Amino acid sequence: MTDARIVAAPAGRNREPILEVLRRVLPARGRVLELASGSGEHALHFARALPAITFQPSDPDATRRASIAAYAADSGLANLLAPLDLDAAGPWPEVAAEAVLCINMIHIAPWAAAEGLVRGASACAAAMLILYGPYRRHGRHTAPSNAAFDADLRARNPAWGVRDMEAVIGLAAANGYGAPEIVAMPANNFMLVFRRPAIADPAIRAMRDEDREPLIALWQEAGVTRPWNDPATDIDFARRGIASTILVLEQEGRIVASAMLGEDGHRGWVYYVAVLPALQGRGIGRRMMAAAEAWQAARGVWKVQLLVRHANAAARAFYDRLGYRDSGSACLQKVIAPRPG
Q1: Which CATH number characterizes residue 256's domain?
Q2: Could you list the residue range(s) of the whole structural domain that residue 120 is in?
């Protein structure tokens, strides 16, 4: 019988440095979903070393899944599961995981695969997203060998290539993950360890793509939109940044509350705090602000500010009850470019 197991030389070289980081950052117990598991050697090595953690490998290629399955069967490890047929860019099966791990994929796949990876990790409520591979930083390669590797990848497929770390960080931020821990690894690689910022209320989550129209409807019903501010443009602007997000509360399939958050390296800001009018007065606004403050605190922000119109006495009274005070400063603004969108 032919042995289905594949031996991949890079896995033998990098598995121990990657494991060293995983030992430090992963929770003591839980499930790790690995995307693009390839030969399955990484999953095998990690499952042996971390017996309290269950590893769920996956790969869209049938030959690689056969290799993963062969390694898993031969190992007899109860914490190494059979591989899933999962394409990062395609529909994901119903799966829950405390962490999503992806090693050496996003540079040898179209950008849509990176988008699907991060979106899928967010959808399966993974508290941690861990990526490994080469990256450019601020538009520049970190080593001549990486530049040569990038050129070779793009010659093989124009949709491939070493990605800008900042673009990946922005993608993760748009899907509810905080700024990553950046770990320099051997051979000019990096591990990016993204974590979901702590939110005070488990019922509150980061906005998803499908929330766009319901969220705009909520804002319109709650009366927080203004004719000169396009809500769709504001949503896109907040979600594309690496230091901003939108939190929502969903009840019975409907978005009933929201808060848009951001930090500028000096202070945190809160916008678009909205609660469905029929549910106002039930403490939901207070819950949204508690979640907003927890998100800010997790990013190291120590002071949060917001803008309230002078005529909005009800809003001023609400924020006063939460401990917000008039700073005594004037808010000055100047339009310096046409509004996007």
Answers
A1: 3.40.630.30
A2: 9-195
Q: Which residue in the block uniquely carries the two structure tokens 């907040």?
A: 238
CA distance 337 to 214: 29
Contacts of 106 (CB under 8 A, 6+ apart): 113, 114, 117, 131, 133, 163, 168
CATH classification at residue 82: 3.40.50.150
Q: Residue 248 pairs with which residues in a beta bridge?
A: 205, 258
Per-residue pLDDT tens over the stretch 262-310? 988 888 999 999 999 999 888 899 899 988 988 888 777 889 999 998 8
Each residue's pLDDT tens digit, 19-72: 999 999 998 888 999 999 999 999 999 999 999 999 999 999 999 999 999 999
**pTM of the predicted structure, to 2 decimals:** 0.62
The tally of domains found in the chain comes to 2
Ordered alpha helix ranges (H), the chain: 9-25, 41-49, 62-75, 111-123, 144-156, 165-174, 212-222, 231-240, 284-298, 313-321
Residues 142 and 47 reside in one and the same domain: yes
